[in-house]
Amino acid sequence: MSDRALALASVVPAPLRELLRSRALKLQRPVLGRRLGRHRSARAGVGLDFRDHRAYVPGDDPRLLDWRAVARRERLVLRQTEAEDELSLVLLVDGSGGMAYGEGSAQKFAVARALAGGLAWLATRQGDPVGLAVGADGIVADATARPSSSPERLAGIAEQLQNPTLRGNCPWPALFDAVGPRLPRRSLVVVVSDALDPSSDGVPTDEADETFLRGLASIRARRHDVVVLQTLHRDETEFPWTDRTTLRFIDLFGRRKPREGAAAGMREGYLAAVAAHQSRLAARCEDEGLLLHTVHTDEDLATAFLGLLGRFEGAPQTAEVSTP
Amino acid sequence: MSLLAPALLAGLLGLAAPVLAHLLGRERPREVPFAAMRFLPTAEPSVTRRRALRDLPLLIVRLLLLALLVLALARPATQHDGGVTMVAEPHDAVVLVDGSASMGLRVDGQTLLEHAVEQGQTLLRSLPAGTRVGLVTTDPDGPRVEPTADPSRVADALARWAERDVPRPGAWPLQAGIPAASQMLTDVRSGDRKRVIYALGDATERGLGGLPATAEGGALVLPIPAVPEDEALPEHVGIVDLTWAPAPELDPRAARVDAVVRRFGAADDAAPRSVTVGLFIRDAEVARAAVTLPPGGEAPVQFTHTLLEDADVLPARVAVLDPTDDPLAVDDERHVWLAAEDAMEVAVVNGDPSELRAHDEVFFFTTAVAAKDEEQTMAVRGLAPDQLSERVRKRGAAALADVDVLVLANVRAPDPDVAAAILERTRAGMGLLIAVGDRVDADAYNGALGPALPLSMRGSVQVGTAPGRKEARVEGIAPADLTHPIFTGIDGEVGLSGASARRVMLLEPDPRRNARIALSFTSGAPALLTRPFDAGRVALLTTSLDRDWADLPLRPGFVPLVSGVLSYLGDTSRGSAGSRLVVGEARRARARGPVVFVTPRGAEVSIAPTDGAATFEDTYALGHYTVRIDGAVDSVFAVELDPGESETTPVQTDDQALEDVEGRVAVNVPQWRWLVWLALGLLGVEAILRWRAR
């Protein structure tokens, strides 16, 4: 097995790969790819399936005239067929320190990596171009941001996901600036992050939330599909420390001072704040037409992935973030 | 600054305990790397308080508290050597301690005497080995320790004495203790060892200020102030005088009480101070007044009060009501007995009246009484001999009941029945003055008043016709016997020198009559004789009261002589005006039987009379005394403080130049009191910190 294959194997677990073998990445809406692909195109093309008739206009290829229809309607009518285009998948992965939370396979980044890798793998298998940009420690790694369907790209992505920095902040504005303008038309942009604290140094968190969402909204405004794939650890939504033992919380981003306190004393305030944030995030995504899908790290990865694929195809979110 | 118990400083190691407890007792928090820090509440208060730096002020305060405690236990003290000067080589010493009332001044919560005893204990501990030391105090009841090589005996005696009710009024001035101390040193004299009197007291005139540098006998006198001389003594107020007089112009039973309040020891630039004094009758306040006193100044306070009770005399006192925290309390009140009427009643029987005042028998006498008696303490009534006879015959001896002194001036002789009444009254305490003259019939006197006469009369003679005295035409007056009570208060010249008599009454010598000669002629013949007659007193002037026989009335000494004779005969100490004694002064009461003295504390002391009078000497308690004879109140008197004992103003004492023998003893002045105050303050801070942290 080559190094790149090994890298892919470490990024996408074997059971997931096995599951994806018989799955396809589909979108609910038609796509506009540059080349033929496996996705229903938004425009008529050269496919086999009937799509529609339209009136002939000068300049149209006369070969496309549907003679039977012309005969019935006594005017020139063109036969249109469905086209299938490729879908450009661009993965924007949060490599900030906050994604390092969790142990082993329950680490947020491990789940994010598996999901992102799975998507890339699925897309590559379908022949769709895939791009990946990672923001970590204040730096944007966008060498593989331009979507490509070559097999090397998948290996490159796997390699990039394999050894993440997981430190500091993810510079979302820079990431959007670097990727946004270069996106092919109607791309699928999947932002993989916990979306809990998208701030960068010195930026107040509420403003950072706004910047983050506005960046996504601007991408959406260019008619790309934007999916926020939120990977959360159960600890972050349920705060399992309930006794009076003193905990010293250390910021994984490395920018806040450690906080100490009895867990029980902090729990209520924390849970309320998280719930408020989540509902605000969901509301904003709804407003901006972004697709928010939340995955907990303790969920079965295969189930989570199938759920994600289902969301792509239009299914509702099955499990909301539980807020006791 | 030094520590009296430095080893206790090891207790500071204990400071580590709370720090260690603080550090070790901290709960080790479990560290949780966390991504969603922004949703954590800013702080969880109780844990933060328990662990974070906000604990630090509390810790520091508590550590300081502990440190102060340890420091206070180590007893820091400053040493000053201003107080105690001592001879460095072994010597003989006497510690002389001032026990007078002014030593009761409270300085820093202790009386001066307690300070002095502390100084004395320090001195005794520090004396060079081999020194013999004794103890004398100016308290008449104080301890007295002969010089001993064991200073602890002196220290014990001093400590026991200090535990008693001292200082007390009536102690001698410190100077008066020097002879006793000097004598003590002379008694134990051995070789040429130095002899030193360490005088402990306050730097007042009655204290260290009046001490000589060297005592009689050569002993060195080293003054040791009870408190360092540079330390300012607190000021105090005291009542230095209290007199009273009837105020008949206001009311027949009105009395005017005059007190003088004085402010002692105040700095010259101190602000005037208001003092409230009150008049108490039988412990009930009847009046109060406020006066403003300049520094070192005094102010009179006058109360007038009508005596509502029907008693002859009433105990009254004037007390300082404000300030209530006077550092010297002993002089804050004075006592007096009040009576509606105070004058001594003098009845003068004029045997030779004259139209011309200068020729009247009693003109000079009454003029002398009026001249001396500015306060009108004597009421003189003139009587003709037949008036006296008439009254006595009408009322018996009761006619003379109000009379304190009866003067028979050139009266021939009272009739026998009148004489009997006079004798009865005289036995009961009346004074009798007999002045002779041309009209006096010696035999009739011997017959009528013979038992009372100091000596029997023989008859008058012209001077110069007397046997053996032909060469002189007049008889001069010899220097007076100043020990006679008549001359109390007169020292030196009586003012009768040059007086002479042309005619005198000769007397029969009779040693059994116990007569005492107050004045005599240069020939040795008595001029003025006195004699106690049971409870009364009799005086006999062997020449005339006017200028007929002698020129006595023209001499300057005549006025004090008349006043002295009347005071003696009238026994002014029995009336309310004469009822004031200075503390320690003995009180005599004339009586035939036992006399009971009731002290202010209610104790009854029965004293048998000797020579017709009982003497009560224990007048060291201030207040009202009552004298009872045969169960009835005979007289009253009040004992008051010598105003000099109130004086606490320091006088400059000379520093003794003793370079060759002097060693200075450091006196430790405790400094832990302010530590305690600081600790209390810190306790408050600690309470505030805890309250804020809650």
Structural features, described:
The complex is a heterodimer of chains A (324) and B (694). Chain A is α/β, with parallel strands linked by helices. Chain A has helices at 3-11, 14-20, 67-73, 108-126, 151-162, 172-179, 205-221, 234-238, 263-288, 301-312; strands at 36-55, 77-85, 89-94, 130-136, 139-148, 188-193, 225-232, 246-251, 259-262, 291-296. In chain A, helix 1 packs across helix 5 and helix 7 (205-221) packs parallel to helix 9. Chain A is elongated. Residues 320-324 of chain A have low confidence and may be disordered. In chain B, helix 3 packs antiparallel against helix 12 and helix 7 (363-372) crosses helix 11 (558-570). The model of chain B is unreliable at 657-661 (pLDDT under 50). At the A-B interface, strand 8, strand 9 and helix 9 of A face strand 2 and helix 2 of B.
Task: Please render the helix and strand layout as text.
The complex is a heterodimer of chains A (324) and B (694).
Chain A: H1 3-11, H2 14-20, E1 36-55, H3 67-73, E2 77-85, E3 89-94, H4 108-126, E4 130-136, E5 139-148, H5 151-162, H6 172-179, E6 188-193, H7 205-221, E7 225-232, H8 234-238, E8 246-251, E9 259-262, H9 263-288, E10 291-296, H10 301-312
Parallel strand pairs in A: 3-4, 3-6, 6-7, 7-10
Antiparallel strand pairs in A: 1-2, 4-5, 8-9
Chain B: E1 2-3, H1 16-24, E2 30-34, H2 45-51, H3 55-73, E3 76-87, E4 92-97, E5 106-107, E6 110-111, H4 112-126, E7 132-137, E8 144-148, H5 151-163, H6 174-187, E9 195-201, E10 220-225, E11 236-246, E12 254-264, E13 273-281, E14 284-293, E15 298-306, E16 313-322, E17 333-339, E18 344-350, H7 363-372, E19 378-383, H8 385-395, E20 405-409, H9 416-427, E21 431-435, H10 442-449, E22 457-462, E23 475-476, E24 500-501, E25 503-507, E26 516-520, E27 526-533, E28 536-541, H11 558-570, E29 580-582, E30 587-590, E31 595-598, E32 604-607, E33 613-616, E34 623-629, E35 632-640, E36 662-670, H12 672-693
Parallel strand pairs in B: 4-7, 4-9, 9-10, 18-19, 18-20, 20-21, 21-28, 29-35
Antiparallel strand pairs in B: 1-3, 3-36, 5-6, 7-8, 11-12, 12-15, 13-14, 13-16, 16-17, 22-25, 23-24, 26-27, 27-28, 30-33, 31-32, 31-34, 34-35
